[in-house]
Amino acid sequence: MLDQIKGLHHVTSLARDAVSNNSFFTRTLGLRRVKKTVNFDAPDVYHLYYGDEFGTPGSVMTYFPFPHAARGTPGTGEVGTTMFAVPKGALSFWRDRLASLDVAGLEERQAFGENRLAFAGPDGDGFALVEVDGDERPFWAEGGVPEEAAIRGFRNVSMRLRDGGATGELLRFMGYEETESRDGITRFAVPGGNGADFVEIETLPGAASARQGAGSVHHVAFAVENRARQLEVRSALMDTGYQVTPVIDRDYFWAIYFRTPGGVLFEVATNEPGFARDEPLEHLGEKLRLPKQHEHLRARLEEHLEPIGD
Q1: Mean pLDDT of all residues in the chain?
Q2: 291: domain range?
Q3: Is residue 73 part of a domain?
Q4: What is the pLDDT of residue 309?
């Protein structure tokens, strides 16, 4: 069993409009845009990162907004809900705030002893806010949300699978422990994690497969401290029979990818070097940053990419 993984690193999803995506995460949810860059493989498409003040691993939601992308169809083989931690007692604030902004899909519920507020993103994305007592992780103080309600990072992701057995075994191999199982949902936690410590598997044997599109999670990334720990994880996964990509430099972290038995794409990403590697902390996410291989396209891209505001 591995012990290098320390919780979630980031979650990357698809969208159809960069302007509404940016507005939702920075204005509605009060997160900081910590990086404005482009898709490595499709540089005419933004890659937008939102998180806490520093872009701390375990807090960062990222998006590829493909203009006019068709909306995805929910189903099995995907992350269905991404959940953010908020302080105890904050859900009444968020219920009123999201309702006043006409956010769809609001539903209060309880699960695993936690109060949750489910809601939908601009493309029907599945989200929830979860009340967590004593979460001392940093937050973005300039997002228009008071400290007593501000998002502290991820709490967990929930995957919808036809059969969760093999993916559950994978999570155990990755260092997660099964903590509870009820109502067809099994919860796993990584000991000594970064706060974004939980993964849930919802088993839906008869459900149709998801069709990826706007509003779908593209992949979920798990955090390791550095490249040495990442190579240890890669070697162990390959020894177990997984087909794992070589290490890829993503400018703000190094990444490896592999497909899980349930169909969800997993990434293992390093905490180093972080989002301040190419711009000062106080100005994160303000200017367009380009991967070095695309820098020669700057003039064309700045003309092509739609301005998204602050």
Answers
A1: 97
A2: 8-304
A3: yes
A4: 82
